[in-house]
Each structure stands twice: as structure tokens, then as C-alpha cells.
Write a structure and sequence with these properties.
- The protein contains six helices and no strands.
- It is elongated and about 70 Å long.
- The longest helix has 28 residues.
- The protein has a domain of 82 residues.
- By secondary structure, the chain is an all-alpha fold.
Length: 123
């Protein structure tokens, strides 16, 4: 059974006192449906863009899934094709721009500092 939010139906509930004397408004439902569909398409494109950017910045699938209220597996299934396509077009993400502590700028600096210490100690 489908339920409809009361706010959606409110404009269609007739108030007999006012409706008896007013002409019904002509509504172009085709245009309204097209506008709604265009809004959905734009929202989907925006979401995909943000997910791709988040993955390229090192965000985990769990980190992407959390704000969407889905599992990391569901997030991967829904978006991995878009992320893979972006990688094919743009190449791999720059590790210096990632938020992943194991591959981000701080890790690179720490790794080079450790390498310099090892070289200096003759190890």
C-alpha cells in the first residue's frame, strides 16, 4: 500500500466555500512532470559528482555510504562504475590530495623523514 504525505494532498482538498465560485485552474501536468524529472536528473548528477570527488580524495566506501544511510556494499554497487569511469578519463587520483592518512601528504612527509633518518644512520 502506498501512502502519500499529507502536504502533497493539501492543495487538492477542496474547500466547498471557495471552490463553488472559482473556475478550475488549467494545469500543464506534462510540463510539471518534465520539470520534476529534470530535477531528479540534476540531483542524481550532482550526487554522482560528489561521490566521485570524495573517492578521488580518498574517502572510503563506508565513508560515502554513511551520509546516504546505506551499506558500503550498496554504495560500491551504486557508484563504482562512475568512479572507475572517472579514473579512466582522468587517471588515478593524486595521492597528495587524498584524505587517507596512509597515502595523504602527511604520510608522504613522514615516510620521507623516516627514509632520511635511515639513510643517515647507515641502516
Amino acid at each position: 500500500m502506498t501512502t502519500t504525505h499529507p502536504d502533497v494532498l493539501e492543495p487538492y482538498i477542496e474547500d466547498d466555500a471557495t471552490e463553488q465560485h472559482e473556475k478550475p485552474e488549467v494545469v500543464d501536468f506534462d510540463e510539471l512532470i518534465r520539470e520534476g524529472a529534470a530535477g531528479i536528473d540534476q540531483a542524481r548528477a550532482t550526487l554522482i559528482t560528489h561521490v566521485v570527488r570524495a573517492r578521488r580524495a580518498g574517502r572510503s566506501w563506508a565513508g560515502i555510504a554513511a551520509p546516504l544511510g546505506i551499506t558500503r556494499q550498496a554504495a560500491w554497487e551504486r557508484f563504482h562504475g562512475h568512479v572507475d569511469h572517472a579514473e579512466r578519463l582522468l587517471g588515478p587520483a593524486d595521492p597528495d590530495t587524498t584524505e587517507n592518512p596512509a597515502t595523504g601528504p602527511a604520510a608522504s612527509r613522514q615516510s620521507s623523514t623516516t627514509d632520511q633518518r635511515e639513510e643517515g644512520s647507515g641502516a
